[in-house]
Amino acid sequence: MSDFLWGYPMITSLFFGGIYLVYKSRFWVYKNFFYIFSQTFGKISSNKDTNESSISPFQAVSTALAGTIGAGSIIGVSTAIEFGGPGSIFWMWLAAIVCMTTKMAEVCFAVATRRVDLDGKFVGGPMYYISEGAKKPILAKVFAGFSIIAILGTGALVQSNSISESVKDLSGLPLNISGLVIIVLLFLVLVGGIQRIGAFAEKIVPFMALFYVLGSLFIIFLQRNHLADAFKLIVSDAFSSKSLVGGASGSGVMLGVRWGLARGIFSNEAGLGTAPMAHASSNTDHPVRQGMWGAMEVFISSIVICTMTALVIITSGLWQDPNLSGASLTAAAFSKSFPFGRYIVSVSLILFAFTTAVSWCYYGERSIFYLTKSRKITAAFKYLYIGFCYLGAIGGLKFAWNVADTANALMAIPNIISLVIMANVFYKLIRDFDFLRENNGLGDYSWTFDNKWKDFFKKYI
User: Fold this and answer.
1) In CATH, which of 1.20.1740, 1.20.58, 1.10.3710, 2.40.128 is domain 1-40+55-237+251-442?
2) pLDDT score recorded for residue 239
3) Per residue in 227-269, pLDDT tens?
4) What does residue 332 show for φ and ψ, rounded to 5 degrees?
């Protein structure tokens, strides 16, 4: 079931759904790429304003990136190269470029349909824009239900297991001790809610991303004699009729497309619907302004982080070794020219997995609250999630991972359907922002679905 859902049906749905959003937005992301960069990373200091009801735009994107940049950014890329050849990276880039618009649309809708909760804080996400925006309340509940299953599996079990295994590899620390350390650290971060999560994310995410990028660049520099050949191989293999990984003639292109598109889509979670829950809490004056951070989130996770992994592996030449795969291929590639390179991989895996676990707990709380409207049940979920993290750390409930993968796919389906339904609203939001931009104006930081954006969703055509 999981393999089928995450095969061609899901890949093509997300990819062509993204292309439709690109077309309906009049290619806005690509026409305004440098403007987007100038308004996001070009103004980081001015994007750190927060208040009691929200977190800063930078904290929001850091929280989203914490949940997006995970073990898949390291292991998933090596799997794509293993099965799809170096040409899969070309298709990964193409998918990531499309996904910049998909993620921007998700974030725009999350901000435009957000509400103020009982504690006076902004809340939003796919549950709200599927229900209020696309007028599909049943699909919204389906999304929330499957997201809880996926979050307990992907966010708790998988990430904590990656952490404990990496710690054991580095220090020999027993899995049960690692599990106890993980749950204590998680509790310290999660007990403060979205404000503490945002404050934690804005400090750790830039550090971990920079650590991995600089470490990768150092390895690539040591293997620089093969860098030009690596880029040539990525492009030529993307259109090769014969697979370089041993497939039959004619299979190379399809394998590269399948694995490259999959990695380009899933490495940034565009279309999955998780990250918009963090962005909805941002202190922003307009949905499109926060949406620009969504586009840059994809750029960082797929174009930057995943490309670093790919270039290290391809320049090492070890991708052709049939005895290496997944994490072992990545570790071997990092260690070929620098004996301590495997520590870059292990430390990065620990950081990436821990921050993912933190963010996904928040996503689970939002889904639980949407379904139950109970703060007590939502608070109880946090402790259930931490308990699942311990089980994952000691290797328990591994059978649930396939269930989590299936739930991930089933939560993406109602999300992408709603994005396509609301494509015209996306362009209406863009036009509204462009009007403000042309007149050097700002929106209002207190705007929500009820006091501003409801009229935008009345008609889709």
Assistant:
1) 1.20.1740
2) 85
3) 999 999 999 988 876 544 544 444 557 777 877 887 777 778 8
4) -65, -40
Which residues, other chains included, contact 338 with Cβ-Cβ below 8 Å and sequence gap of 6+? 218, 219, 222
The amino acid at 92: M
Across the chain, what does the average pLDDT equal?
Answer: 87
Q: What DSSP string describes 257-270?
A: HHHHHHHHHHTTTT
How many residues can be counted in the chain? Answer: 461
Name the DSSP letter for residue 55.
Answer: B
Per-residue pLDDT band for 124 (boundaries 50, 70, 90) equals very high
d(CA 153, CA 149): 6
Is the separation of the CB atoms in 450 and 123 below 8 Å? no
Q: Is the pLDDT of residue 204 over 80?
A: yes
Per-domain boundaries in the chain: 1-40+55-237+251-442
State the pLDDT confidence band at 300, using cuts at 50, 70 and 90: very high
Sign of torsion, CA 128 450 423 33? negative
Residues ≥6 apart with Cβ < 8 Å to 152: 364, 384, 385, 388, 400, 404
CA distance 324 to 313: 11
Is 382:190 a contact under the CB 8 Å cutoff? yes
Cβ neighbours, 10 Å, residue 196:
15
User: Which pair of tokens denotes residue 192?
Assistant: 């403060």
Distance CA 392, CA 405 (A): 15
Q: Secondary structure of the chain: what % helix, strand, coil (to 5)?
A: 75, 0, 20
Helix (H) or strand (E) holding 116: strand 115-116
Residue burial 216-235, b: 16+ Cβ < 10 Å; e: rest: beebbeebeeeeeebbebbe
Q: Provide mean pLDDT across the span 92-117.
A: 94
User: Over the stretch 394-445, which tens digit does the pLDDT of each residue have?
Assistant: 875 455 556 666 777 788 899 999 999 999 999 999 999 999 999 888 888 8
Q: How many CB atoms lie within 10 A of CB 250?
A: 11
Match 């930081």 to its residue by tokens.
Answer: 445
352 contacts 73 by C-beta, under 8 angstroms: yes
Contacts of 65 by beta carbon, 8 Å cutoff, 6+ apart: 201, 205, 209, 297, 300, 301
Whole-angstrom distance, CA of residue 281 vs CA of residue 56? 8
pTM of the model: 0.91
Distance CA 445, CA 411 (A): 30
